[in-house]
Design a protein that fits this description.
single chain; alpha/beta; eight-stranded mixed sheet; binds 5-O-phosphono-beta-D-ribofuranosylamine
């Protein structure tokens, strides 16, 4: 049997997705957590799972570009197979995107391509959306524009505030992200150019878990 996929998580904040990724790691292991924010609570979450961390703050570098380049160079020490962004609040340098194309994922709190960017929960309410949710996508050079791998929907209630809606979306994030990373690690989700391919097993699992995966192309196998 092949060894576990080596996952490095990047984060800037509280790390609730990291926690769920660590708790639900079956086909992968989280081998390191990197941050641009030394005081990020997510680094404490990593330590609680005995996962090594590194944090390189902006203050240590002449430019933000140097800081970002240093973070992505430093995480190579963990020999990752997959980079998983989980609340990482910096734009990834283009050279890194090219190096990691197809092997760098992000989770975004909206049903992309709707509501890229910040404040998605407040915007979903303000725009009168009936449905909101979260998306796991490949990272490309745009802001939240990479090909979507899978999504989870949440119905917007009339009584919702941005905080109540965010909380419901977050519970779905915590299911969706580990499912995608496990499936990617097993080879049940794969990337061919900008096309995502799914095994029949992955499609069946997604349906059972009420996740949405793109249906604009046929299943990968007969
Ligand atoms: C999540 O809402 C995620 O969708 C977004 O940043 C937030 C990270 O939350 N990209 P946490 O740090 O995982 O709790």
């Amino acid at each position: 049997m092949s060894s576990l996929t080596r996952v490095v998580v990047l984060l800037s904040g509280r790390g609730s997705n990291l926690q769920s990724l660590c708790r639900n790691a079956h086909a992968y292991q989280v081998v390191g957590v990197a941050s641009n924010v030394p005081e990020a609570v997510g680094l404490e979450v990593a330590r609680s799972f005995d996962v090594p961390t590194l944090a390189l703050p902006r203050a240590g570098f002449a430019t933000v570009h140097e800081q970002k380049a240093a973070i992505f160079a430093a995480l190579e020490r963990w020999e990752p197979d997959l980079l998983v962004l989980a609340g990482y609040m910096q734009i990834v340098p283009r050279a890194v995107i090219e190096q990691w194309w197809g092997k760098m994922l992000n989770i975004h709190p909206s049903l992309l391509p709707e509501l890229p960017g910040l404040d998605t929960h407040a915007r979903a309410i303000a725009e009168g959306k009936r449905w909101h949710g979260c998306s796991v996508h490949l990272v490309d050079a745009g802001i939240d524009t990479g090909p979507v791998i899978a999504q989870a929907r949440v119905a917007v209630q009339r009584s919702d505030t941005p905080a109540t809606l965010a909380a419901r979306v977050l519970t779905r994030e915590h299911k969706l992200y580990p499912w995608v990373v496990n499936a990617w690690s097993r080879g049940a989700i794969s990337v061919d150019a900008r096309r995502i391919q799914y095994s029949d097993e992955a499609r069946i699992e997604a349906q059972a878990l009420d996740f949405i995966i793109p249906t604009d192309h046929a299943p990968s196998s007969v």
